[in-house]
Amino acid sequence: MNQRTNRPPEVPVKSGSVTLVNLFKVPPGESEQFLERWKDNARVMIGQPGFIRLRLLRSLIDDAEMRYINVAEWASGADLEPGYANPSGKRPCNACSKTRTST
User: Fold this and answer.
1) In the list 14, 35, 67, 74, which could disulfide-bond 80, CB 3.0-4.6 Å?
2) Which pTM does this prediction carry?
3) pLDDT tens digits for 5-60?
4) Alpha-carbon distances, residue 36 vs 24, 85, 92 (angstroms)
5) Domain 1-8+29-93 belongs to what topology?
6) What is the reported pLDDT for 37?
7) b/e string for 22-47 if b means 16 or more Cβ within 10 A?
């Protein structure tokens, strides 16, 4: 099984609120496994200081290149960094992701 290929985003520590967007390419046969791991990771993130909310969106097109989109909101870049680095929220997933942030 492959490790996640995304890196922690580079966000200024003194930024205001931060929205983290991950795009996941998940083969159709691996959706259940991906969703279980996403839920496990979500449970960890929800307990982190500065966490605001989390959503997972799924494409209505089954063969879309990026089938899932994770949107997480944090109070600041300073809150995002330790939450993202938490090793208990980084279970490997066969899906690769691309990360975007906005401040």
Assistant:
1) 74
2) 0.70
3) 445 556 666 668 889 898 999 987 899 999 999 999 999 889 899 999 999 999 99
4) 14, 20, 12
5) Alpha-Beta Plaits (3.30.70)
6) 93
7) bbbebeeeeeeebeebbeebbebbee
